[in-house]
């Protein structure tokens, strides 16, 4: 009886999602999302911060709960944040993993989770029809507040993690990334990989996950973002149902500052591949960094705009040294990395690295040209609406604003702040903040092929 009922529900909700998808395209094509959403915010009785945007156009609601419980909180038990988040849906209350999955699927709801360096995320998307939304929210609340961390699921997920770690050992890209973060953040929580290591995962116990959950999955350590076709009163009820049952707890300690390297560091790792992976960089910017906008616009010109960037033009187009070359900032709670990188043939690695370094040094010294700055501003502001062209993107931005406690008008003023950036500001910010002579460089690849006799 349950299977038949569940199958009928899935078919009905699948048709609804298909209709919503078609409607969505029409709504956004008509320019409905041209204006930034109005953000409402409050705090639940037990201390969770809530950010809400009404989106009445479609009968869906997105809920995103973000905890300050990323891998930066692993505290010597590397990988515990990832495993804790991954096991939330493996058992909760009286439900096992299959029953949790069947409940969400039977309601046409989409449940997910993730753990990054700064944060851990639990998300739900549901239709707003009460007969579907109410049980979906109830199941989400059970998963958040009553996870059981079954022993068999723990062993299964630990085995999967170990398999993933061994797979990373065969990927020069993953090897380079791990070595880069380790060199960039020695002794800092960002320096350890979120997935952990083989030794750390083998050393973890189920109790480690329970303790981590009890410390960090609490209301005062949570930010809740809600976007959808509900009013403020309904959103308050959703917040109380989802987060109101969490223990109040305490907010996590802020991750420590990430100092710049005192001098340049080079790490060269041999790997039997035809391509060499190169990464270089330094700790860059925080989410609330006062230099964020000049650095963001400047990097768009330097290496963040694909094939038309300076780095791509010099490395790929003019010299054919790499198919992919780039630079980017990752703003985080502490200074996230500024990274420049490329992949190239082993015999071209040194030349490609030199060109990459020279392009960066010239840009820092001289800044952008007027035409480059104009084109960058048009490209960034012209594409801004695409960052808000779906409820899922809005709720992601909303959670980011709440987690990092950015101003509520962040989205409203984004394009204005981009337009206000000058070439002088970019040159000044890069000269003060980006230091090629103190960067970390990681090179992973094989030796250059010997010429034929």
Q: What can you tell me about this protein's structure?
A:
It is a single chain. The chain has a six-stranded mixed β-sheet, with helices on both faces. The protein starts with a helix and ends in an 8-residue tail after the last strand. It has helices at 2-29, 80-87, 97-106, 130-145, 151-168, 172-184, 198-203, 206-216, 232-243, 292-304, 310-317, 349-366, 370-382, 391-403, 410-420, 423-433, and strands spanning 40-43, 49-54, 60-67, 91-92, 95-96, 110-115, 120-127, 222-228, 265-270, 275-285, 325-329, 336-345, 440-445. By secondary structure, it is α+β, with helices and mostly antiparallel strands. The radius of gyration is 24 Å and the shape is globular. The protein folds into two domains: 16-31 and 38-243, Cytochrome Bc1 Complex, Chain A, domain 1; 265-444, Cytochrome Bc1 Complex, Chain A, domain 1, CATH 3.30.830.
List keywords for this structure.
453 residues; alpha+beta; Cytochrome Bc1 Complex, Chain A, domain 1; 2 domains; 6-stranded mixed sheet; 5-stranded mixed sheet; 18% strand; globular
> Order of strands across the widest beta sheet?
1-2-8-3-7-6
Gyration radius, in Å: 24 Å
Largest sheet: 6 strands, mixed
Per DSSP, the total helix count is: 16
User: What's the assembly state of these chains?
Assistant: single chain
End-to-end distance, in Å? 76 Å
Q: Could you name the CATH topology of the largest domain?
A: Cytochrome Bc1 Complex, Chain A, domain 1
Shape: globular
Strand content: 15-25%
Percent helix? 40-55%
- The helix-strand sequence is HEEEHEEHEEHHHHHEHEEHHEEHHHHHE
The CATH architecture of the largest domain comes to 2-Layer Sandwich
CATH superfamily of the largest domain: Metalloenzyme, LuxS/M16 peptidase-like
Number of domains: 2
> By helix and strand content, what is the structural category?
alpha+beta
Residue windows where pLDDT falls under 50 for at least 5 positions: 1-15, 17-34
**Mean pLDDT across all amino acids:** 91
Number of DSSP strands? 13
The first-level CATH class name of the largest domain: Alpha Beta
